[in-house]
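quick one before i forget lol
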Amino acid sequence: MSSTPAVAASSEAVGADGVRQPGGEVHAWLPGQNQTVCGLPLSRTRLRRFPHVPFDYASTDVLTEADPVGYICPRCLAATQGRRRQEKSWVRQSPRP
């Protein structure tokens, strides 16, 4: 089982190089599991697996009409991005007794 998420999508498109590419609704999927990261079962939702395509989408990605991908699951984005580390803006100098 791999810890790097791949793509599961509702449809596929063939790229210029002849390799299958995801299209339609895109979800993150961990190879070796039967569900997406957000909990959708692959067989019941009829999502196609793309183990050769890493899930490297970001919440700032903009999709246009020319993209074969029409929708990126926000729950999968949140699960794969994790929390961003923030620096502490303040440090207590004199703790209360």
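fyi The longest helix spans residues 74-81.
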